[in-house]
Amino acid sequence: MCHVCTSATDLSSCQATTMCTAGQVCFTEVSHMGNTSVYSMGCSDLQQCGPPVGSIMGPVIGRSVDARQAAAPYCHNCCTAPGCNLNICKSGNDTYRLFYFDFRGRGELTRMIFKYMDQPFTDIRINFQDWPAIKYSIQ
């Protein structure tokens, strides 16, 4: 479940929610026009929130995540916890990326700590069969 809004100038107006489909995550984009912040939130394909262009994990649609983050004053962050996209761009552009297999294991404790601390993070789940091809490319 992700918060949804388009071109909102107040976070309190972004209270509508939607369920993302498989392969999608929550996102928030914030741009600043003078003293006004403009928020857009919703579901986005994981590829749009994934690793930088050139990574073996697959292409990023449009500009790379790094390029979007560098386009200050701008924030584009993604997350996977229910309702997580309401606050992910409030604390600047610093978010964590957790790369781990798509099952509960050692990475699950890290996911739980991030969620408990209300820390935005990008939860990048890797298929086990893809691991040999990507294990040296993760940054």
From TrEMBL:
It comes from the Eukaryota. Residues 94-139 form the GST N-terminal domain. Coiled coil: none annotated. Signal peptide: none annotated. Gene3D superfamilies: 1.20.1050.130. InterPro entries: Glutathione_S-Trfase_N, Snake_toxin-like_sf, Thioredoxin-like_sf. This is HPGDS-like protein. It comes from Mya arenaria (Soft-shell clam).
